[in-house]
Amino acid sequence: MGTLRVGVLGALGKVGRAVCEAVDAAEDCELVARVDAGDPLETLTESGAQAVVDFTHPDVVMDSLRFCVEHGIHAVVGTTGFDDERLDRLRGWLDGTDVGVLVAPNFSVGAVLMMRFAVEAARYYESVEILEQHHPTKADAPSGTARRTAQLVAAARREAGMSAPPDATSTALEGARGADVDGIRVHGMRIRGMVAHQEVVLGAPGETLTIRHDSLDRVSFTPGVLLALRAIATRPGLTVGLESFLDE
Amino acid sequence: MGTLRVGVLGALGKVGRAVCEAVDAAEDCELVARVDAGDPLETLTESGAQAVVDFTHPDVVMDSLRFCVEHGIHAVVGTTGFDDERLDRLRGWLDGTDVGVLVAPNFSVGAVLMMRFAVEAARYYESVEILEQHHPTKADAPSGTARRTAQLVAAARREAGMSAPPDATSTALEGARGADVDGIRVHGMRIRGMVAHQEVVLGAPGETLTIRHDSLDRVSFTPGVLLALRAIATRPGLTVGLESFLDE
Amino acid sequence: MGTLRVGVLGALGKVGRAVCEAVDAAEDCELVARVDAGDPLETLTESGAQAVVDFTHPDVVMDSLRFCVEHGIHAVVGTTGFDDERLDRLRGWLDGTDVGVLVAPNFSVGAVLMMRFAVEAARYYESVEILEQHHPTKADAPSGTARRTAQLVAAARREAGMSAPPDATSTALEGARGADVDGIRVHGMRIRGMVAHQEVVLGAPGETLTIRHDSLDRVSFTPGVLLALRAIATRPGLTVGLESFLDE
Amino acid sequence: MGTLRVGVLGALGKVGRAVCEAVDAAEDCELVARVDAGDPLETLTESGAQAVVDFTHPDVVMDSLRFCVEHGIHAVVGTTGFDDERLDRLRGWLDGTDVGVLVAPNFSVGAVLMMRFAVEAARYYESVEILEQHHPTKADAPSGTARRTAQLVAAARREAGMSAPPDATSTALEGARGADVDGIRVHGMRIRGMVAHQEVVLGAPGETLTIRHDSLDRVSFTPGVLLALRAIATRPGLTVGLESFLDE
After folding, report:
1. What is the pLDDT of residues B7-57, one digit of tens each?
2. Helix A222-232 to helix A109-122 angle, to the nearest 10 degrees?
3. Which residues of A touch D216 (CB under 8 A)?
4. Which residue, B192, B246, B248, B196, is CA-closest to B220?
5. Is C144 exposed, middle or buried (CB count within 10 Å of its CB: 0-12, 13-18, 19+)?
6. Shortest Cα distance from C238 to chain A (angstroms)?
7. What pTM value is reported for the model?
8. Taking every annotated instance into account, which residue ranges of this chain make up the domain Dihydrodipicolinate reductase N-terminal (chains A, B, C, D) (predicted)?
9. Which contiguous run of DSSP H or E holds residue C145?
10. D134, D187, D197, D213: which is the annotated catalytic residue?
11. How close is the nearest chain A Cα to the Cα of B177, in Å?
């Protein structure tokens, strides 16, 4: 495999700069275009970019993607705000082309693996609960990743024909047993000094299995971006979520 | 120090048998009397017991203790059901004697140390939360030890003039942030395969301190009983809680 | 699926008794024969056993398995002492039959999942080390499971073309960096009060992933035995290791 | 207590800047002088500094401290390179004055508490081992803090008349049981993504107690610096180590 020519959209943003650095440092990638607000998209075609990474804004991302698809440029997208309507529009543009686009809410390989392992293990353990721990300036509880994990685990249990986890609690202080997400208990801690951490605890008679992900620094998403860049050319059409790129 | 002559009340119960075994195995103790329901308390005086361990029943414990105090026998008591009235009555009997009686709800040295360390650390950390994990047949949530820890930590924070732990949560699923015990958040997990576990998590900018106690087997209370037996002769009067015996 | 008629060999041993109890409690299994030393193997055929569980002794297991294969009875085997010669002999007997035999050194589903997840995650993390924690009466260090995990992880890294994990240690006390198993560092703790625990820690820039298995009680192997019993009829021939039974 | 007037030596260094920020943010402190290489020490006296924080270099720290002592300015010192000769010289200068000087190798309150709790708990647990986890660019193993913890724990055990922790290991791979520091086993992991973490694991029959410190960011030392600043005026003479400042 030769070197992949990569353009970065949102190159001057905090995330974009980290992406530029990572692409620059990767031996099999070449950073050929840094595009930010105000720069013409033609920079991409003129520089011969084969793929782009887009961490920009919901207001501009659709125009950028339309340009990329029309010019045969693959795209790895971390920008938020994709609802079903947008995803359908994207699918329409991609139809009949060889272009691959990945839209993913989370590029942390560790978070994706944690969710996958939790799902794989779910059918073997009658008990499962989730603990997430974050800095105390976080606005929502539980975290989006914890909710998503609970939903995936709940679905896996339903598919395996499992009933609710055992719980004989008869007297409890309000909130002591956490939040209920599709029947799975989720607990959120807010602790100064922490960044973003999650633990899935599964239990069966005599044993427990714990899968823990600690995210200490934003740089942790760049391996997922590089992994996606390396695979995107062989994945024509739209893919949602990094999960399926970790498969082979 | 010579050998301590020990009698066990409730010697045939599950806990009593474990106590007998532990006393028997301790080099500095001699098990001289095993007393159970129906046996005369005089067995204690006849065998020359210097101290007793009592894990019996609220219905009989006061009579046994009166007998012990009258005969100059020290007592280490794990039997439940001691309210203020009972403790006052005990104090009255002990007044003017050299007899020492310890009444403790929890003989786990580890649980006592965990609480003490949490209290000592509390003033240095703006954030603190408690997670307890137990088998799913437990009826109450959070556990008594977790509540007690939260109360002690809350008191230590008040004494140090600290305000509430930081928490910017603005949208939360019900229960996601745990129960509120005196302003401290407490989370209870119920997992098959677990026994009794607790974690106190403290946080300040850039660092966290975690104190975790795992209790895997009931035998874990016997060291606390032995520790109390060895000290009880030098502690005349009534002591409540194992804590103060860990001090010197 | 109807009820599976199960015989247990070594039914009076500590493990065998636990197996009998588990089979008895399983709704889809019927315990039809308890065989121990001195009992005739014909008990199995007379009781109509369709499958057996064998936790006996290396001296007798081969005779029992020969009998089972000849009489069309599937076997789930936890007895130790299987070398290549024995496995080959077993394969010879099974050749041309519909009988399924599983020989597994470890029936803990959690241990098997931990190893599988470690292998799946290995390629995404430049760093990986293993910590095992056991009771202090264990004779070998590191544990067999930890060694096996290290070997599997090392193989996965080689296959992915990865070099050695980063380590800038230039001055170290002897043993500080653990044992080297195929290039993977393995650390063994011996702590009173612990049973059998293992943690695989993987790290990449800004994030770590930890997979932990706690085995607190011997009963933890029975789910693996039941899982194997339910699948063994559809797995003719010899299978080594519970891993492949967790696949579908 | 009024506001404390503080000068910072090494104010332009990485650590010094963090100290300046912390002093500036503290309500009971006023940052009155930022001194760096080339600046005259008289800045301190002219600005009316009552105490200084010194994170500079072994080459200059002694001159600065002499100046401070002569001018009645208290000092909190994190600069390295203090051997017995230097400490003795400092004591000589301080003799007969009211000036307080603290020299501490580690200003992390959490690390100090972890060590203290490990020492307090040591006598109650027959088993104890230490695990430290750091980034893979660290040169020494085990870490200085882990060694120090092991030495303190070993001393506490000796004082309590305890023998070596139980360990029945008879066959081991080299290094599997960690390094031996005064009879205490210490294990060092090197994992990309980690910063500085340590766990002291204590065990007795049926229970374990774990004290874990996670240091994720350099800012974690500033609370220790502020705590020392607030106390230094009441501690005339030389103090070595932050420990004794956490006592009252």
Report:
1. 999 999 988 999 999 999 999 999 999 999 999 999 999 999 999 999 999
2. 80
3. 193-195, 216
4. B196
5. exposed
6. 24
7. 0.88
8. 5-107
9. helix C144-159
10. D134
11. 5
